[in-house]
Amino acid sequence: MSPEPSAGAAPAAPSGAAPPTLSVVIPVRNEAPNIGPLVAEIEAALAAVPHEIVYVDDGSTDDTWAALQAAREVGAPVHALRHKASCGQSAAVITGVKAARGRWIATLDGDGQNDPADIPKMLARAEAEAAAGRRTLVAGHRVNRKDSGIKRYSSRIANAVRSRLLKDATPDTGCGLKVFARDLFLDLPHFDHMHRFLPALTLRQGGSVVSEPVNHRPRVRGASNYGTLDRLLVSIFDLIGMAWLQRRGKRPAIERDTGP
Length: 260
Known about the structure:
Elements: E1 6-7, E2 22-28, H1 32-45, E3 51-58, H2 64-73, E4 78-83, H3 89-99, E5 104-107, H4 119-131, E6 136-142, H5 149-166, E7 178-181, H6 182-187, H7 198-204, E8 208-214, H8 228-248
Parallel strand pairs: 2-3, 2-5, 3-4, 6-8
Antiparallel strand pairs: 1-4, 5-7, 6-7
Helix pairs in contact: 1-2, 5-8
């Protein structure tokens, strides 16, 4: 699925400015009270890493856009883009990664449940994998989840079924905190709900996946945009489609002409 053209994008960085090492891409919808606190946490966690924060407002109907402008006005390196209407989380991630300038991408949910303090160790692991010649997605693993009992139970079932069917080597693909190379993501097929299957898509592309234990926190501001039953029904159809896509994937071995 192609993301809807964005509106209200922040001004581009000067053409001579050096690109940051890391772009933190955050899709949000109706998360106004979480913008300021999360930006402050990211800034503290990444004080030693050249970075930018790319927010994509996916058709919010609250004051999310105003909160993003306020974050920029106090000097945070926030670049904000907005979908005129909600296109879904995957479309927002795609929009954000395409707009990002960093070699590395960190994604995290905008509800404050992911801890930005985990990003540096995940980035270090991704860089070590790259130094060893591997294109690796580093996936967060919420080992001590702070969600409701029904949400944890349904997620446990979904992860088990997905892992058995797709063999994606990931215990917690639903964790929004991931770190990967921007060019790896741009090589993947893009479609609605693809964010749920980034590990499987990475493996399909010839990359590798490693999991990193991360902190998980309860939501303290705002309300969830997702229900349990509707997400489960969508996931069933998505799994079938993803299994089909895996079987159709081919990775040709390329031999280069070594002549003059």
